[in-house]
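Moderator note: this is an archived Q&A kept for reference. The question asked for a predicted structure of one protein chain; the sequence and the answer are reproduced below.
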Amino acid sequence: MEQSCEHCCVKIENLNVKIDGNSILKNVRLHTDCKEILSIVGPNGAGKTTLLKAILGDISYSGDIQFQVRGSITKKPKIGYVPQTLSFDHGAPVSVQDLIASSLTAIPVWCGIGGNVKKKIKAALEKFSVTHLLNHTIGSLSGGELQRVLLAMAMIPIPDLLLLDEPASAIDVKGLSLFYEIITQLKKEYDISIIMITHDLAGIAAYADRMILLNRSILAEGSPCQILSDRKLVEAFQLDLLSVSRLSIPTGTKNYE
């Protein structure tokens, strides 16, 4: 990478993904900066989740993805990931502690959870004010509670890069501001890079440092206000544009077409 930094950057060049012969992502070029919240928006089927899976290495792709951590190129950065949905049996007697412990040790949780693992779990939950949920079953949690638990889980160990796939979709309006404030605090405290897919344009606008408009390729990038000011793009993708009139809109959106 051209620039040197102390924490994690991602540089994507000419990324292409095809699934069953269909082009899902085409010639995607993207560079995320350290200590940045990058919001990705676009219509359903635009390839947003596919982009995260490519960064995670979960799907095949052509092109190049590079990571830089503390000034050095690496193929294996620590990545925290919160998926769009978590499929599980809501009636299963699996506690929050059991769920997180299963990601930290190869020993089955029914064989017992070690003291050191318990300390790590409690410390992570404390950061997100959900320690009281430690022994609750995951099926009993509200959408906002589950998202904070999953976020705590993604932060063990502290990642270089945090990927969030529509984290606001299961959170009510009252919980959204708290969630965004938590994300912002994580960025400041740990200097990590955060990539977040969202449809909550108005909500994320006050917190994201940069926004990408994606529909199989990147069509525009800039500050949230710059992207939201391009009404033709927003209307073309039928995005949920709320309270945009209240935003201070500068000019200077970078268009790729």
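Archived answer notes: The chain has two domains: 1-78+161-257, 86-157.
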